[in-house]
Amino acid sequence: MPVSLHHIVVDARDLPAQARFWAEALGWRILSEREREVVIGPDATAPVGICFMPVTDRKVVKNRLHLDLTSGADDREAEIARLLALGARRVDVGQTGDESWTVLADPEGNEFCVVRPKTTLVS
């Protein structure tokens, strides 16, 4: 039997703040909050959540792994504006400007993308 994905773990300097940002961004909730671990997810029975673990150092290089977010809404720019209002910021990781995604970073600098809905990928 293969293993299954349980959590995506994100290093964070301010666990509660990062958890609040991502819970709000994804429409999830905080499931568990301890001194050295905060877990968010859509609900307690969800197959995958995000776990924030403490680090003392600042992020200094581009992520080797990032999240791609999408919305069922047709107005991707409105979703980007919502994320920016939550504390995200636009970042340049070498985009040309012709991409079908927008690169943002969370309050601690972790890059993520807002991409077009998967339904647009069907030919």
TrEMBL record:
Domain (VOC): residue spans on this chain: 4-117
Pfam families from the UniProt entry: Glyoxalase_6
PANTHER family: CONSERVED PROTEIN, HYPOTHETICAL FUSION PROTEIN
Name of the protein this chain belongs to: VOC domain-containing protein
Organism, as annotated: Actinacidiphila rubida
